[in-house]
Amino acid sequence: MSDRKFVLGVDFGTESGRAVLVEVETGEEVGTEVYPYADGVIDHTLNGQELPPDWALQNPEDYLRTLNRTVPAVLASSGVTAEQVVGIGIDFTSCTMLPTDAAGAPLCTKPEWKDAPHAWVKLWKHHAAQPEADKINQLAQARGEAWLQRYGGKYSSEWFFSKVWQILDEAPEVYYAADRLLEGADWIVWQMTGRETRNLCTAGYKAIYDKRAGFVSNEFLRVLDPALEHVIDQKMMRTVSPLGECAGGLSREMAALTWLRPGTPVAIANVDAHVSVPAAGIAEPGKLLMIMGTSICHMLLGATSQPVPGMCGVVEDGILPGFFGYEAGQSGAGDILAWLVRTFYPEAGAAVHQDLEAQAAALKPGECGLLALDWWNGNRSVLVDTHLSGLLVGATLDTTPVEIYRALIESIAFGTRAIIENFEQYGLAVNELYACGGMAEKNTLLMQIFSDVTGRPIKLARSSQASALGAAMFGAVAAGSGGGGYDTIYDAIPRMGGAREQVYTPHEANHRTYTALFQEYVALHDHFGRGSNDVMKRLRAIKAEQRAG
Amino acid sequence: MSDRKFVLGVDFGTESGRAVLVEVETGEEVGTEVYPYADGVIDHTLNGQELPPDWALQNPEDYLRTLNRTVPAVLASSGVTAEQVVGIGIDFTSCTMLPTDAAGAPLCTKPEWKDAPHAWVKLWKHHAAQPEADKINQLAQARGEAWLQRYGGKYSSEWFFSKVWQILDEAPEVYYAADRLLEGADWIVWQMTGRETRNLCTAGYKAIYDKRAGFVSNEFLRVLDPALEHVIDQKMMRTVSPLGECAGGLSREMAALTWLRPGTPVAIANVDAHVSVPAAGIAEPGKLLMIMGTSICHMLLGATSQPVPGMCGVVEDGILPGFFGYEAGQSGAGDILAWLVRTFYPEAGAAVHQDLEAQAAALKPGECGLLALDWWNGNRSVLVDTHLSGLLVGATLDTTPVEIYRALIESIAFGTRAIIENFEQYGLAVNELYACGGMAEKNTLLMQIFSDVTGRPIKLARSSQASALGAAMFGAVAAGSGGGGYDTIYDAIPRMGGAREQVYTPHEANHRTYTALFQEYVALHDHFGRGSNDVMKRLRAIKAEQRAG
User: Fold this and answer.
1) pTM of the entire structure?
2) Measured between CB atoms, which of A365, A368, A546 is closest to B365?
3) Which DSSP state fits B227?
4) What one-character-per-residue DSSP string does B182-216 give?
5) Does any CB of chain B come closer than 8 Å to the CB of residue A368?
6) The pLDDT of residue A1 is above 60
């Protein structure tokens, strides 16, 4: 063991943080430790005060606790010494952002701000900045801002400037007290290294940055709100660091906290979905990676930049250097199936998932007679509309929960096919699917249905913790070959990343049936999603009115 | 007791038969006995052979057993003597029909036919004659048959000639072996009196008869199928008897079976929904009676005959003499709520209905954010299409079964409003609603929602067994005033029928919200029901194909 070299990947997720120790040479994962965040997702009350709907906060202390609880433990359990760890990479949820003082101390950790909700970390799924996003989109369209098409024509309420502007709108005192506004990803790297940086991935996908065009203009920000005019220069950074670059060495304080060597190279921050691409062994266009959990992220490399309406974004070098990285997504997936279980089987144990899968697998495509729109949590791509909602059609007196379960899986697969067809319609080939994440690991019926619906083979990433592995791979690049790692991510991919031998292949007859059903899905998708009937939005408005009244 | 006079009403329902003994002078119900049919609804297997989908049969022996098990029992339990019973009326489900020999013996009771499914009673909800109904409608439209508009423009697969023709199509040997083809209602009266008659109600609503125009032409039947040309003359009867007329006296055999006096006047047969109108005290236009159970029937009197597209039928004297009786209906109501309970609470006890009602009552209109199309069992009126199916829109990850329960109730109420607006659009005023049946008795939330949605007051029929009471009232008319009854149904109504004092009145603010939601319902109703998107039919076709394949 003693002559082997390792890199550490730390994955900061929604509910927990995870450290994985990986051998540089082979990609072998020799240890894993998970820390469930003490404060988790703060979406109901904060220090006893009720939060409005659609809020989701986190406590940044949970990120530091993750390092402290997992890193020493993974060293101890694996028998790897601090000297053998040649680099560290992290990945984070995004856009998860917070306000800090000039030294990087989160405002929410200060007594005077701890009861101000806007002083806390806004988690990626904080959806309360929709009014700001709407105005950003209106203005960008009116001005014909070129950057808008890099975001598929719509800037999301989840993203950086929507959240920043919500702080300014609702708590200007917090906005003005914040010296720095930044992603949690960059914040944790700052904490680890003592050096403030901004990574290209979150800057590109969430903060309207492009390596050729730079950031969104101050002029646009000024028209949005005069107080925002200089936010980039005053509270952000114009220097954006490429992925894999070394942000700095681990600080003395952080080394004490993690039992690692001071000076251990730490990679520039990165994002969970994006780092999974090299972890799955993908280094070229045409291979779409699906990160499948409560929601699904779709990552695709392109040789050129194409405007694709309704995707999340395209960023040059945003996933791997030398390629345009395309991202799309479905805002509901595993959480829709969890809804079904919670709603139909409130008292069932964990085995209900296996039972449902087994019973649903006995049905043929279309045999349930049901069709759903998978918008229980809105639509992230192709329509980019959080105010859409779920639809089920075809119910009869004989309809069973198992049939609904299968129809929901099918609808999620149709949603992915809609994304694939949207990519292809705008010139980006999708030849092969790759998958990782809990849902891909656990639900073989779902994976087969995805293959049948899309008519494409699907491979699984070899690692069941692809994000942490991908983060570790960028840690190896930060170390460089001279430091025991690799000089580029492309050197790391064939050694550390890869897919399993098992392949899901489409069943031809099923694919035909699903293609007929997909046409029906598209008709409903367009009718309810493209303005022919905005009933979903009106129902939501009536609901909000009745709850308030 | 000994100087009081009584009439007996016998209600032949879907799952059971019921005898109610009613005082002529006051309408007081002095005794009730129920017989659950031994063979119930035969819809899975018949003598060990599997039945195709959509079949629903009954055993005519269950009707005779009803008389034998309930009538002596109700006499015994009430202390009423056979001499005090001055008349009998029956009501039946419809169109529930069977083939018999010339003497009225059902073919299915004969050893040589007992394994032929077509020899049995086809229950009203036998839905397997859709191909025949489709062809009847095509031909009627092509020929411009005047009678078609008396059925709202569509003849149903549930009705008499659809079922007759299905026998001929699928089992010609049964068709040719049948001397008589008739409604169960007329069959039981034949059994009771020894005299074969045909009642105006089922002839009018189900068998294309009108007191002015007579039956559908032999010519039409011949073009449909040459073998059908003389079916009316050969296997039915051209003489149709008005409601309330005496069919004959109770036969000696039947008197022995029921412990009643031989010769007791028996009224011409009638139908459950139709006899409920006088039972509720209705004797004039403008008052719509809803018979609310697994499905809902809507009965309305009109002074004139108006063509109303999409209703079930209009028959002169079909409910009460001197009026045009209009019928419409919803094919799913209580059975949709039963589906919800069965699907979401498979292990819950009977109390779950009360729990759901209480929890759903705490929601405001529109607060659940959901909207449904109540077509779990197809649409009987206004669209007249059994191949439509249920739809739910507005689902989110927070959607609960209670919210779905409330949305389903609301959708059923919207379905009734669509029927009311359809009547009014074609010139028939609906000023006030009356209700009877299990769902009206049990579910006060549902009744309030119906009042709020329709914006109209709703009264409940005084009797909780309105059909049997109505049948008894016609029994009193069959007896005539000379025989201790009444000369007309209008004499009986103020004495024996009536409504309760309790009235559900619409809440103005709720009505406004529901009117906004009803516009959304109408948009979905028309989109999915009038051909803009026939996805429901295509899903059904794919389902059938996959089940068969």
Assistant:
1) 0.92
2) A546
3) G
4) EEHHHHHHHHHHS----BHHHHHHHS-EETTTEEP
5) yes
6) no
